[in-house]
Amino acid sequence: MNKTKKLFLTILALILISHSPFVLSQKVKVIDGVKYVINNKKPKPPKGALVKMTLREEFSIGGGEKEEEVFSENIFITVDDKENIYVADMKLNNIKVFDSSGAYIRTFGKQGQGPGELNMPTGIQVASNGDLMVEEVLNRRLSFFTPEGEFLRSTSTANKTSLTGLILGPEGTMVGRELVLEENKMVWAVKKYDPDLKEIFIVEKVDFPNPLQDKINPFELIIVFDLDKNGNIIYGTSKEYEIKFIDPDGTHTKSITKDYDPIKITEEEKKEILNRIPETGGLNLKERIEFPKYYPAFQNFTRDEKGRIFVRTFEKGKKDGEYIIDIFDPEGRFISQISLKANPVLWKNDKLYTTEESDEGYILITRYKVSWEKP
To answer: Which long-range contacts (C-beta less than 8 Å, at least 24 apart) are formed by 263-266?
Structure first.
């Protein structure tokens, strides 16, 4: 083969590569030491990736037929290594326990301020030793129980203005969201804490509007965070389609981004959101709401044990009540989408646990078996 022909083939190959879907779908940039994995609006998955996800329903808990399976609208779920399911109910002030087949086992806790009593639980986690940590907003403490419901101890959070969303990490460290006063304004500060709830560092701050003075964009307070088994913090807000990775020392190491078309908020949707806001004495909170023109990039995200990230967007699916979920591999490359009505809560042992509202208005907890295939 002569040199002219070789040169021609080389140029042709470079042109084909530069226009291939893979190259156009994802690109990587390093800016100030941070790795950015950038996905375009309609990215193609990497070659050979497992992209076809199948969900097979195993069971569903709820529906109002049994009193022990009735949940309020605000529940929090965790699952232990035996696949027992623990449900903290913010309104009923108790913990309901179900076994790995979805059968009811027991209920413990009741409303109150004494040891073992609960007052607005807003989170539940399984510690590394198997104990349960329950976050209580109104009692301003963390209460610890055995899996059987025996009260062990509590840790006060009274020195925090408002601490919610705590997630347990390696060696007892935690990440949570705390409301703090700063320069005559309130901000939500996402922080990492040691086991005694002493601040280690601040991940990021988000302004908190004063409902007595400011108009409130209800989507500005979307703050999502998680912890992986290595202690890395995965974090995102409503500002843009970006998911940040913060290492255990507080250094921003990686970001996953995706271009998207903003979804406009309709007048009907605005009314539906306002109808869900409870009436409060004195202050009419609904009058303080000011909707933006478009929804944020996403509602929330979850992660499975393989490190895949599932981002629930505001883009609607084909069926009523469904939303599109973008799926990224552990590197941050887009691999697939699914349309799901249920809200993914957690992934464990190749199973997905979700919550959703039934057509009759009952809250359901559903477990799916998850399998993956190549296209």
So the answer is: 263/294, 263/295, 263/313, 263/314, 263/315, 263/316, 264/293, 264/294, 264/295, 265/291, 265/292, 265/293, 265/294, 265/295
List average pLDDT for each run of 10 residues in the chain, which is 375 residues long. Answer: 50 39 68 95 85 94 87 94 97 96 96 94 94 95 96 93 90 92 87 94 88 80 91 93 97 96 94 79 74 94 96 94 95 94 95 93 95 88
Q: Is the Cβ–Cβ distance between 246 and 224 less than 8 Å?
A: no
pTM of the model: 0.89
Type of residue at 299: Q
Cβ atoms within 10 Å, residue 150: 11
User: Residue 225: what are its φ and ψ, rounded to 5°?
Assistant: -150, 155
pLDDT at 281: 60
Cα 265–chain centre separation: 22
Pair 347, 328: CB distance under 8 Å: no
Residue 343 burial class via C-beta count within 10 angstroms: exposed 0-12, middle 13-18, buried 19 and up: middle
Half-sphere exposure of 258 (CA within 13 A, CB side): 26
Q: How is residue 28 annotated by DSSP?
A: E
User: Under a CB-based contact definition with an 8 Å cutoff, are residues 244 and 296 in contact?
Assistant: no
State the Rg of the chain over Cα: 23
